[in-house]
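anyone seen this seq b4? input:
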Amino acid sequence: MAAAATGEVAGALLEAIGAPPDVAVVAVSPHHGDHLADVAATVATVLGTAAVVAVQSPGIFAGDRTVADGPVVSGWAGSVGPARAVHLTAPAQGTVRGWPDDLAFRVAGALILGDVRSADGAALAAACDRWAPGAAVAGGMVAPGAAGGPVLATAAGPVPGGAVALLLGRPGVLDAVGSHGARPFGPPATVTGADGTRVTRIAAGTALDFLVRAATAGGLGSFGTAGVHLGVAVREGPGQAPPTDVVVRTVVAVDRATGSIDLDGPVPVGATVQCHGRDAASARAALEEAVAVDGNDGVLGALVFADASRRSLPPGGHDDAAVVGQLLDHLPVAGMVTVGTLGPAGGATYAQRHAVSVARLRAS
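predicted toks r here
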């Protein structure tokens, strides 16, 4: 029963923290999707905070495991100083609206959850960098269940579309790490022809020729759009770009007649690119490395947003909740499966597919 589960979760959070927290994120399985607004309102009332977002997801992280096949409610809360929940509209090719101009604090961190049907992840990422430069940003995009309906709710009620941002004001209380989880192979090269998300030429040849040569040299056999991705260095430097400075774009289509490729995000002319491949071992190693950045001293808990595709990585799949739970031994870990993430790369915020974004709550 949704009401009983929500009351149990809210009570446990209040008992664990010992005082009314400033912010809370509650994830519910589609079994409880019809009660999403009631879940948000109940948690807000019990915890005594309006900075609450409830989200529906087919996979819920609780501790070091993922629950993907049964009814579940999972909550994550913290004392983070001043916080506020806001509703953002973020249409594709449009202007993001809803960022408050009456905040009593400077935004130091943000947790973003967007409805994939009506919010554009790239627009949300760019808006965060514009309105809150230097802030730690983590989040993801969520999709509706079979019954449709709202996938987000706040203490004020169901969110009709767009996104919810939990804005935090205390410096240092939240940090964010991202991991695309892909391994580079083949030589880096420069994009010499591109238009938005279509890349026509890389180095002296076509984009398709570049991918085919790299895939063949990497032992991947005949080239297909599945399994080969293009890593884009978003911050240039000497030598091969570190994973934290790379955004990985998925090849969504190829035009064999022209040799061009279409990606799931824009790539500018002059960018340094390198082929990447995905597997469970690479995803685990990359996530372990990312979470180890800056160390975990002072970390009190983590909220994980992981793209759904990561659970089916060969061989045998990959479980982000288990990895983060093990790395943050016995600390509170919660989160959800998403259809795209928002997280840091190269000092800015990016929307990516197949990635994971981890928000760490720290003592400040």
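Helices lie at 2-17, 36-47, 121-131, 207-217, 280-292, 320-327. The chain has six helices and 24 strands. kinda curious what u guys think
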